[in-house]
């Protein structure tokens, strides 16, 4: 009887099911490799673990040279967007148990941006596109002595696009962005949308003019990759279409 | 007279680039939508009249086409179909080239080829529609439309 209780205790504590998972990582070390290579690690993980936990386990226990970005690890900072099983997701919001575990889980850096090391890409072109749409409030006249008031309806108009965490999952899922380095990309258009439809902002005309560019909203092919990729559930393609409509129907 | 020395300060919020302040891409995008809708009507009308009305496909011969092109209505119909379809398809291929051809040289030459082919097809097609002779003089009479004068 004594042995039975000893056996039961760990079983109760281990209520979370564990399983074997093979992580297939797209590694690239600029100091050694001329090309990226695949590397497999088989781990024992638990039902509550996310892809990020598997990466941590590899980095902390197996290979400390594995390089990736993450900050908050709770889907807010937007640092750990990567291509998991061919889809752009946040590693910290993807549970391993939701992926098909009979096959290896592939992890790659996001596409369309230059890989610096492993899953770290050069985000500068992405931020440059964001900066070019003037992501700040543009007003004229004297500043009011108190906050700029706005009705709840006016606030709701652009609520969806305020959720962006700039993880680049949408922009790096866009096939036009992959091949055309000049295209602003979905995120920059989302960023512009947030100000264009803000009732307090007066820079809409300038932003629309920027997005009317040859490499602006008209490059969008409506493939919905961005909407599928957004970890915040922003309807990115819809936002882009709203900017197109604003361009079509501006100045009567 | 001394030059005025007022310093000129550029506007701090000048957008990054303002090249080509045109609406070309906007019009191209609009054209794709409008011509797409028109083409659906034109093409299905064309298919219906050619393949389903009367004897259907069995009525299709030289005389049938010649008879159609004797009427200005079908001349305009076919002309619109030719122009809209060619420009619609060319614009679509242009964006595909922009999407997928990465080297500038390749992009340029693909577009030169595309525009040449489009121009040749549109010019040739337009010429045929308007200079078409429904009653060629040395043809067998039973192949010609009924309104041709007897040889």
Automatic annotation (TrEMBL), chain A:
**Which keywords has UniProt assigned to this entry?**
2Fe-2S, 3Fe-4S, 4Fe-4S, Iron, Iron-sulfur, Metal-binding, Oxidoreductase, Tricarboxylic acid cycle
Q: What is the designated name of this protein?
A: Succinate dehydrogenase iron-sulfur subunit
Q: Which residues form the 2Fe-2S ferredoxin-type domain?
A: 19-113
- Keyword Metal-binding annotated: yes
Q: In which pathway does it act?
A: Carbohydrate metabolism; tricarboxylic acid cycle
Q: Which residues form the 4Fe-4S ferredoxin-type domain?
A: 154-184
- State the InterPro entries in the record: 2Fe-2S_ferredoxin-like_sf, 2Fe-2S_ferredoxin-type, 4Fe4S_Fe-S-bd, 4Fe4S_Fe_S_CS, Beta-grasp_dom_sf, Helical_ferredxn, SDH/FRD_Iron-Sulfur, Succ_DH/fum_Rdtase_Fe-S
UniProtKB/TrEMBL annotation, chain B:
Q: Which domain of life is it from?
A: Bacteria
TM helices/strands, residue ranges: 26-49, 69-87, 108-132
Provide the primary localization: membrane
Record protein name field? Succinate dehydrogenase subunit D
| Pfam families named in the record | Sdh_cyt (PF01127)
What Gene Ontology terms describe where this protein resides (cellular component)? membrane
Is Transferase among this UniProt entry's keywords? no
The keyword Protein biosynthesis appears for this protein: no
The Swiss-Prot or TrEMBL record annotates one GO molecular function as: metal ion binding
Organism, per UniProt?
Answer: Haloactinopolyspora alba
Give the keywords, sorted: Heme, Iron, Membrane, Metal-binding, Transmembrane, Transmembrane helix
- Where is the protein found, in the record's own terms? Membrane
């Amino acid at each position: 009887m004594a042995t039975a209780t000893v056996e039961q205790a760990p079983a109760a504590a281990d209520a979370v099911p564990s399983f074997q998972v093979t992580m297939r990582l797209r590694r690239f070390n600029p100091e050694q490799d001329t090309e990226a290579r695949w590397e497999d690690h088989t781990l024992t993980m638990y039902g509550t673990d996310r892809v990020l936990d598997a990466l941590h386990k590899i980095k902390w226990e197996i290979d400390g040279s594995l390089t990736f970005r993450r900050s908050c690890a709770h889907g807010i900072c937007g640092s750990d967007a990567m291509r998991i099983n061919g889809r752009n997701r946040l590693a910290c919001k993807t549970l391993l148990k939701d992926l098909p575990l009979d096959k290896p889980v592939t992890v790659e850096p996001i596409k369309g941006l230059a890989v610096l090391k492993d899953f770290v890409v050069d985000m500068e072109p992405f931020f440059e596109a964001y900066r070019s749409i003037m992501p700040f409030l543009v007003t004229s006249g004297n500043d009011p002595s108190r906050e700029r008031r706005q009705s709840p309806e006016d606030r709701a108009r652009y609520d969806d696009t305020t959720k962006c965490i700039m993880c680049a999952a949408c922009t790096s899922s866009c096939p036009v962005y992959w091949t055309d380095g000049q295209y602003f990309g979905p995120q920059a258009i989302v960023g512009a949308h947030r100000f264009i439809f803000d009732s307090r902002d007066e820079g809409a005309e300038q932003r629309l003019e920027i997005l009317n560019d040859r490499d602006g909203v008209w490059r969008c092919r409506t493939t919905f990759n961005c909407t599928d990729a957004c970890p915040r559930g922003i309807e990115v393609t819809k936002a882009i279409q709203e900017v197109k409509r604003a361009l079509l129907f501006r100045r009567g | 007279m001394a030059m005025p020395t007022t310093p000129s300060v550029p506007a701090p919020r000048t957008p990054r680039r303002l090249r080509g302040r045109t609406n070309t891409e906007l019009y191209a995008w609009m054209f794709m939508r409008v011509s797409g809708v028109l083409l659906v009507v034109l093409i299905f009308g064309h298919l219906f009249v050619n393949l389903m009305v009367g004897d259907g496909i069995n009525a299709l011969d030289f005389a049938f086409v010649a008879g159609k092109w004797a009427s200005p209505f079908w001349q305009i119909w076919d002309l619109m179909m030719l122009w809209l379809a060619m420009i619609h398809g060319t614009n679509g291929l242009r964006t595909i080239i922009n999407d997928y051809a990465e080297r500038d040289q390749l992009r340029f030459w693909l577009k030169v080829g595309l525009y040449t082919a489009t121009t040749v097809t549109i010019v040739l097609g337009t010429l045929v529609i308007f200079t078409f002779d429904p009653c060629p003089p040395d043809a067998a009479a039973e192949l010609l439309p009924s309104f041709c004068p007897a040889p």
